[in-house]
């Protein structure tokens, strides 16, 4: 008998796209689309159980084995470095991490650079490679406000369309890394449920391939 796979799905902007991909791959669970506040959905026949979790918590559920697999942005994986297997790039949730500063200020400052970010570890690594002294200001949202009101010189944040930067008169001065959503697995679950997890991964990969091939 097939073993049940527990999946941590990220709530928010990735959630629906990711679930739709699982559904197309044959792992549907129609009740998940109902308008309610439930957090667990199961399709016993398909051997799948979904949990809705906060995007930055997906790696915690998977690393500790409460979920066998999950979907997290590469930003979250680089920031927290969870001890999990990364199985597949889903090719959605595409954006980039970048350094941005107020428009027309190219050389920001010679002194210690004040950097506001939600991603202190990615930021530290990036500036360490550039041998630049920085003072990290760790915020949790509205990062673009920081340089506008003088809290920081620059920001390190996610840029997707660039609209938030433009509307706050900021511009990208350096790219840090490209981001997309990744399928991750708990290491012990992957050993115990190899066949089930590999079938699911392959079914998801088959959903990506046609789009990539059409490029
Ligand atoms: N414009 C964007 N802004 C932020 N994240 C984006 C964007 N586009 C794609 N992503 C990807 O989507 C993931 C989830 O983003 P979302 O904004 O839903 O979560 P969040 O509110 O930042 O999470 P949390 O509340 O857990 O910190 C990010 O980790 C990133 O990989
Ligand atoms: O390039 P864009 O398409 O404008 O998208 C980028 C913006 O979206 C995200 O913010 P989010 O909406 O998650 O808000 P918060 O981080 O300020 O809470 C991110 O932190 C940027 O601010």
What would you say this structure looks like, in words?
This protein is of the alpha/beta class and 215 residues long. It has 2 domains: 5-94 and 179-207, D-Maltodextrin-Binding Protein, domain 2 (3-Layer(aba) Sandwich); 95-178, Periplasmic binding protein-like II (D-Maltodextrin-Binding Protein, domain 2, 3-Layer(aba) Sandwich), CATH 3.40.190.10. The protein has helices spanning 15-24, 58-63, 74-80, 120-129, 145-148, 163-167, 187-192, 194-213, and strands spanning 5-10, 40-43, 48-53, 69-73, 85-89, 95-102, 113-117, 134-138, 154-159, 170-179, 181-185. The chain is elongated and about 65 Å long. Bound molecules: adenosine-5'-triphosphate (ATP) and 1-O-pyrophosphono-5-O-phosphono-alpha-D-ribofuranose. Adenosine-5'-triphosphate binds next to helix 3. Residues 141-144, 157-164 line the site of 1-O-pyrophosphono-5-O-phosphono-alpha-D-ribofuranose. Pathway: Amino-acid biosynthesis; L-histidine biosynthesis; L-histidine from 5-phospho-alpha-D-ribose 1-diphosphate: step 1/9. Belongs to the ATP phosphoribosyltransferase family. Short subfamily. InterPro entries: ATP_PRibTrfase_cat (IPR013820), ATP_PRibTrfase_CS (IPR018198), ATP_PRibTrfase_HisG (IPR001348), ATP_PRibTrfase_HisG_short (IPR024893). Residues 54-204 form the ATP phosphoribosyltransferase catalytic domain.
